[in-house]
Amino acid sequence: MSAIPDTLPVIDDELDVLSDLIPLGKRDIIELGCGAAQLARSLLSRFRDSRVTGLEVDERQHAKNLASPRPGLSFVAGGAQAIPFADASFDVALMLKSLHHVPMPLLEQALAEVGRVLRPRGYLYVSEPVYAGPFNAVIRLFNDEGVVRAAAQAALDTVLKSGHWEQVAERRFEMPVVFKDFDDFEKRIMRPTFADHQIDDAKLAEVRAALQPHLGAGGAHFQRPMHVRLLRRI
Q: Cα separation of 86 and 76, whole Å?
């Protein structure tokens, strides 16, 4: 991996990073763990001749996605470890803050599945939060992802040794994250639809106290460090 620079650029829209690394016109793209598919919708507004399929394991989010269709975007329920598509179906696979959510025993299987559904010379774009910084320090009080994030990076290192992939680019940057108040943080981060972090009153008070120093008149503003690795199927 490349050395980490002292000062990271601030990126408001990750689509700018993605489109700088990969030609996105006339592409068949799959996003694994698409969530609300915000980047996919933005991508299709900019590259109207491409098609995006969003794969999502969270049933509640999947239902919301189906209720908000748009041309060029389709949704399928499923996980990266069992992608319900034929071999060589896509040009690009996206994993945006989702690789570390794959169960650790299934990481190798998930990356093998990605390789299977990509066409020759297809790209895998993996964007992962870095386990560092003030934002991470608050989150780890109720959801410590240190082990799973390290496992995600190790899984990428392992597949690169297989001879079936090459890493063609790497980017590090920070993304702004804003919460208007503690209730906004609690709803979006502490109580997502896809996970139960077992938040009791004591934990809620602890996290509230940790977030308080970051709250001002304009809410809580963080810069979240991100690490992108772009792999290409050989």
A: 14
Domain extent at residue 158: 14-131+143-177+225-233
* Residue type present at position 72: G
Q: Which residues contact 192 (CB under 8 A, 6 or more apart)?
A: none
Q: What is the CATH number of the domain that holds 37?
A: 3.40.50.150
Rounded CA separation 177/223 (Å): 6
Q: pLDDT per position in the chain (234 positions), as tens?
A: 556 666 899 999 999 999 999 999 999 999 999 999 999 999 999 999 999 999 999 999 999 999 999 999 999 999 999 999 999 999 999 999 999 999 999 999 999 999 999 999 999 999 999 999 999 999 999 999 999 999 999 999 999 999 999 999 999 999 999 999 999 999 999 999 888 999 999 999 999 999 999 999 999 999 999 999 999 999
Half-sphere exposure of 207 (CA within 13 A, CB side): 27
Q: Which amino acid is at 3?
A: A
Predicted model pTM: 0.94
Structure token pair of residue 9: 């650029």
Q: Is residue 199 part of a domain?
A: no
Q: Is residue 220 part of a domain?
A: no
Return all residues near 194 (Cβ < 8 A) that are at least 6 apart.
57, 58, 60, 61, 101
Question: Is 217 part of a structural domain of the chain?
Answer: no
Alpha helices in the chain (DSSP H): 14-21, 38-46, 59-66, 107-117, 134-139, 146-160, 182-185, 201-211
Task: Give the number of domains in the chain.
Answer: 1
Residue keyed to tokens 């680019």: 169
